[in-house]
Write a structure and sequence with these properties.
Strand content: 5-15%
CATH topology of the largest domain: hpI Integrase, Chain A
Oligomer: single chain
Amino acid sequence: MSFDLADFQTYVTNVRSKPTARRYVIAVTSFLTWAEPVLGRIPVSRFPPNTLSLYTQSLLSKDYKPASIKLHQAGVSRYLRWLKEIKGVSVPDFHQAELPRVNRALIQYFQYADKLEEPIRTAVMLLPCSGLRSQEIVSLSLGSSLKRSPFKLQDGTTKETVCLVFGGKGGNERIVPLVDEGVKILYRYLKGWRATNSDSRYLFPGNKGSHISTRTVRAAVQSIREKLGMEFTPHTMRRTYLTTLYRKGVDVTLVAKIAGHSVKILMEHYLALDETDVVGAVHAMGGRLTT
């Protein structure tokens, strides 16, 4: 069942300004255009509970700014309310779609790391983007450790991803996906400074054909720590990466596999969860006892 959006715009104009009404219509048009190929031609009453979360993720993947995403969320929420209260449509209770929390300390970390000289700069910036230990990051080889993996998103588009590959026990490989920021940082490095330094097989070359040392990485992180006036180590960046994956909804068994640890060790020593995570776990599904 579909409705004329001009009717919706007239409704919104009665409670909000005309410019806001126009923006809401644009947001709803974008939402409905996204929904059909992703969810299929089904009525709103059959949309899954995580629809708004999926839509928010699609906007994030297209680099929409937080303010624009909030406007889209407001427009779609008003549209769903209009369907339910004015048009009498059976609208399900959707999970709340939240924007990722902004880690300002991490943003400052990147800003200071960006001022370092290569190849230390990229090595330090990739720590929170990969969750690697210092020894792992410095020993990455230029070829065999990097694996490009195109991935098809739910909206049908394809994004270029990069995984870091390590040999594991019994010949098993450990696959570590870079987050989006890490992919951009790595490509900038490969196309820039690293392209002009081909005298080593390592991703981060050091002296005499070897790689940079873990001591160098730790010293660089310490210099950033002193500037920020905070206490953290390269291992803190590893916990940041793993906790971020968990908060994004990656199954804990997969997070443990990426970390190379058991779920028990992961939960006890790596996931830095707080009160917001606990509350969110209860209320992400609505927080109701009887449904």
